[in-house]
């Protein structure tokens, strides 16, 4: 499945064929990405990352996650998705990461808009959450730009780099998105 955003940016459903080029981007940016992503250290080799991608495909089949690869100018530059899907409560959690070469080009914001629309209109979600480390200012800018409501701080909520991080929790409700 592909979600077109514009002539140079699209989202492709996460698939094993993306493993090698996406791992190459991740591997070059390992230190920067590991600051806020707890799973980076587990992705030491391409086979590690391929297993991770296969698990993403399984979670999609189980309707627990839907994730996409952000493709900018025919190059994979990151991942975005709705994770921890709870279809009974009509909730999901927005997550994303991007390589530094694609930063500052509106890729994440435009991709988030597309995935939010997808979540509300295709999955019938009512609530989308976004959790962001309180020290990750670049990532905080995304939900704030998209008019998510900051609900509070989850204290010591994520173990990254041998320490706990506090997370801001943001949410967006379906009827709030429709008003935008």
Which features does this protein show?
single chain; 180 residues; alpha+beta; Aminopeptidase; eight-stranded mixed beta sheet; 6 helices; globular; GNAT_dom; protein N-terminal-serine acetyltransferase activity; Acyl_CoA_acyltransferase; protein-N-terminal-alanine acetyltransferase activity; Ribosomal_N-acetyltransferase
Your description of this structure?
By secondary structure, the protein is of the alpha+beta class. The protein has one domain: Gcn5-related N-acetyltransferase (GNAT) (Aminopeptidase, 3-Layer(aba) Sandwich), CATH 3.40.630. The chain contains six helices and eight strands. The chain is globular, with a radius of gyration of 15 Å. The two termini are 26 Å apart. The mean pLDDT is 92.
Structural class: alpha+beta
The first-level CATH class is given as Alpha Beta
Major beta sheet, specifics? 8 strands, mixed
State the end-to-end distance.
26 Å
CATH architecture descriptor: 3-Layer(aba) Sandwich
In the residues, how many domains can be counted? 1
The CATH superfamily is Gcn5-related N-acetyltransferase (GNAT)
How helical, in percent, are the residues?
25-40%
State the shape. globular
Count of helix runs: 6
Total DSSP E strands: 8
Query: Over all CA atoms, what is the radius of gyration?
Result: 15 Å
Strand order of the largest sheet: 1-2-3-4-5-6-8-7
% residues in beta strands:
35-45%
Return residue spans where pLDDT drops below 50 for at least 5 consecutive residues.
none
Mean pLDDT: 92
- CATH topology, what is it called? Aminopeptidase
């Amino acid at each position: 499945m592909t979600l077109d955003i514009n002539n140079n940016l699209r989202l492709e459903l996460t698939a094993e064929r993306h493993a090698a080029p996406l791992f190459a981007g991740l591997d070059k940016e390992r230190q920067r990405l590991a600051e806020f992503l707890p799973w980076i250290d587990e992705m030491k080799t391409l086979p590690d990352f391929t297993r991770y991608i296969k698990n993403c495909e399984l979670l999609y089949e189980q309707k627990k996650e839907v994730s996409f690869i952000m493709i900018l100018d025919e190059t994979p530059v990151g991942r975005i998705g709705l994770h921890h899907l709870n279809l009974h409560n009509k909730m999901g959690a927005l997550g994303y990461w991007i390589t530094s070469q694609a930063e500052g080009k509106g890729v994440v914001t435009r991709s988030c808009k597309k995935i939010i629309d997808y979540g509300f209109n295709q999955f019938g979600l009512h609530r989308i959450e976004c959790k962001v480390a309180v020290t990750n200012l670049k990532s905080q800018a995304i939900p704030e730009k998209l008019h998510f409501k900051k609900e509070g701080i989850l204290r010591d909520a994520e173990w990254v780099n041998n320490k706990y991080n506090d997370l801001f929790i943001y949410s967006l409700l379906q009827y709030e998105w429709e008003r935008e």
